[in-house]
Amino acid sequence: MIYFDHNATTPTDPAALEAMAAWHRDGLANPSSVHRAGRMARAAIETARRDVASALGVDWRGITFTSGATEALHLAIAGLAGPGDAVLRSALEHPAVGGAIALSGADVVVVPAEPSGQLDLGAIRRLSTAKTAAVVTMAAQNELGLVYPIEAVVEAAAATPVVVDAAQLWGRLPLAEDAFGADVLIVSGHKIGGPPGTGVLWTRQGTRLRQVIGGGAQERGRRGGTENGPGIVGLAAAARLVPSRLAQMPRVRALRDLIERRLGRIEGFVLHGGGPRLPNTLAFRIEGVEGDLLLAALDLEGVCISSGSACSAGAVEPSPVLRALGLSSAAARGGLRVSLGPENSAQEAERFCTLFEQVLGRARGTRP
Amino acid sequence: MRVAVAMSGGVDSSVAAGLMLEAGHEVVGLTMKLRDTAPTEAPGASCCSPDDLRDARRVCDRLGIPHYVIDYRDAFKQQVMKPFAEAYLEGRTPNPCVLCNDHVKFDTLIARARALGAQKLVTGHYARIEDAANGPVLLRGVDRSKDQSYFLFGMTADALSFTWFPLGGVEKTDARDTARAQGLHNWDKPDSEDICFVPDGDYARVVERILGADRVPKPGVIRDPAGVALGQHGGVHNFTVGQRKGLGIAATERLYVLSVDGPTREVIVGRPEALLASGLTASRCNWIGGPPADGLKVEAKIRYGHAGVGATLRVVDDGVEVHFDTPQRAVAPGQAVVFYDGERVVGGGWIDRALAQDEIERQR
Q1: Partner B contacted by A299 (CB < 8 A)
Q2: Is the pLDDT reported for residue B46 higher than 80?
């Protein structure tokens, strides 16, 4: 199998797997328990907190472990904004952001995207009002792989708190120092070889979030409920390996460029998005060919990539992100995404291109 | 070989997929998303509900085969639902299932199967395809009570040679037993026999929704065969030839809809014996294995539930005239007429109008 869908999830790193297995094997218990097994668990989580903070280059006291980036976004958005407030978000945010704003009761203000997929920074200034409680932005866009100038967003937001979703950036490009100067930083475990169901909400000292989950005093009252101990130590193990992931990115970039050069020769190839990109992502379409068809045809040949459409309850809708770039519904249905990781090889990249040309030839030989 | 199975989430297509797997094929499950469904719609009442998609996925997971959902909502709307509703504007009684087979399943879906490298498209239809000297032929399903060959008369030779119907030779009850033996969770799911986008049988409301307020047929007059006005009606889409209920007029005898005229918005009602026709004309015919000889004796089915009647085919310019051996009740323009020679489907066409005895005699 050729796995080229790292922006969806990454294969779990053996080190993360081992850390999670050790948690269970060594009998670590509830971190809130006073006894020895509980203390071991507490110690493991606090070590994880410091290691994750160090990997992110932030103060460990601001780290809250969550069930993922989606939960972290909810805690941050509902923590900063409520009814009567407004939240600015870009047109290209992950659906979790829109969902969280809607549930918070705040009004959503959409910052339009340029046709290239870049953010309209001027709009952040123009659309900000006294009611604006937060600006939410991705550091790197999941479908397009575009990388955004977060320091400029933070500057444009002025005194308004900025929530940065860096789930796709972490482990692919270095995070800017001091969390871009942002107030809230969010990352996910399963995009860096950690376990799914783990994420991090980091808040700058002095950033006040209303409590969203009540009940327990875990995570300093930010998130009641027994901690996902094995997930947290798995996430920390993967976080420690981020430098080695980053060290492999030049090689990953070369593989991506190889694929882009070869597919770029195909008639009808259109690259999606313009500007700085993650080294591992290639977003494109083949004019007139449905992305889901090529996705399925490649899947049958043992290749995992992603299409531009989101599948919910079986309904296949064209990607809102591609539509936000101004693509027609038909063009957006052509969207495909190849996202690579450190464990991919040149051989896989070559094989992928050959298979892609084959299935495309077959798809074009028949009718679409 | 790689085969694509059209999976509705129902028991028949699920069994078909299981049988393909047992036969050693590389099986790919395809489910067509044909329309948006309200979440309140009862599962199993029709295909394409989220529950049906989940059932199809569950069966594929259970069988260990890949499963893909294909969005055909636009094609279904344009090629099936719209023509369905527009037929009512013309006073015809449409058959959307045939359109769906002709334009969606055995055309677009075949193209998709080919594009995925499949060498056959497999469905759970109760009909058989056999190879003959002049190409593939279509036969009735062995389970006569489930036989679906009527809906398949429009299949081209190319479609027939690309398609397998593994349930054509089995009884429905055996299919359920097989599903149960294969461990498929939907083995006892109720059959769906209604038109999928009219699950509650309220055709008129669906027609109104598809056409939109500005195109909904306007009220008109109900007359007797002599032209005497008997009352008003709320639009020709509420009527089909042979209908007795819902006429909304008081009469001492049982009255039936004899004909529906779209342009004049007139509905003619009369006594049941006036519903009898001696034949019909049909056009837009499809002949499986070549056009028929003039005068061919066949068995004609004038609607899905019709028992069939002996008939003679007269080839005319744009189709056929069908002369029944015995008069038949309620020949409805817009319905399909399908011709059989024993087990074999000779072909079929779309009914334009009923023929009276004197029209047939004049020709002789």
Answers
A1: yes
A2: no
Nearest C-alpha of chain A: how many angstroms from B198? 20
> Which residues are paired to B232 by β-bridges?
B221
pLDDT at B313 over 60: yes
B111 touches chain A (CB under 8 A): yes
Residues in chain A with CB shorter than 8 Å from the CB of B114 are 362, 366
Reported as a pLDDT band with limits 50, 70 and 90, residue B45 is: very low
**Which chain A positions have a beta carbon within 8 Å of B33's beta carbon?**
314-316
Q: Cα-flanking dihedrals φ and ψ of residue A147, to 5°?
A: -110, 130
Please tell me the distance in Å from B89's CA to the nearest CA on chain A.
Answer: 31
> Rounded mean pLDDT of B247-253?
82
* Nearest residue in chain A measured CA to CA from B65: A300
Spatial separation of the C-alpha atoms in residues A84 and A103, rounded to whole Å: 13
Give yes or no for B58 touching A (CB within 8 A): no
> What's the Cα-to-Cα distance from A290 to each of A354, A365, B76, rounded to whole Å?
19, 14, 17
Question: Model confidence over B75-108: pLDDT tens digits?
Answer: 999 999 999 999 999 999 999 999 999 999 999 9
Residue B53: pLDDT band (50, 70, 90) is: confident
* pTM over cut 0.95: no
> Which tens digits make up the pLDDT trace of A251-290?
999 999 999 999 999 999 999 999 999 999 999 999 999 9
| pLDDT (0 to 100) of residue A313 | 44
CB atoms within 10 A of CB A27: 10
DSSP code for A211: -
* Per-residue burial over B133-150, b = 16 or more CB atoms within 10 Å of its CB, e = otherwise: eeebbbbbbbbeebbbbb
Tell me which residues of A are annotated as active site.
Answer: 311
Kindly state whether B115 is in contact with chain A, defined as any CB-CB distance less than 8 angstroms: yes
Extract the tokens encoding A198.
Answer: 């783990």
Q: What does the alpha-carbon distance between residue A30 and residue B284 come to, in Å, rounded to a whole number?
A: 74
Mean residue pLDDT across chain B: 91
Closest C-alpha among A134, A158, A151 to residue A73:
A134
For residue A31, count other CB atoms closer than 10 A to its CB: 20
Of A104, A215, A218, nearest in space to A163 by CA: A104
B53 with A313: CB under 8 angstroms? yes
Residue ranges of chain A with per-residue pLDDT less than 70: 308-316, 366-368
Contact B115 A300 (CB under 8 A): no
Shortest distance between the Cα of B96 and any Cα of chain A, in A, equals: 22
Q: Best of B60, B67, B70, B71 to disrupt the A interface by mutation (most A CBs within 10 Å)?
A: B71
Determine whether the interchain pair A315/B112 forms a contact, defined as Cβ–Cβ distance below 8 Å. no
- Distance of alpha carbon A92 from its chain centroid, rounded? 12
- For residue A137, what are the CA distances in angstroms to A100, A111, A152, B106, B361? 13, 10, 11, 47, 81
- Is the pLDDT score of B194 beyond 90? no
Catalytic choice (B60, B97, B196, B285): B196
pLDDT the model gives residue B251: 77
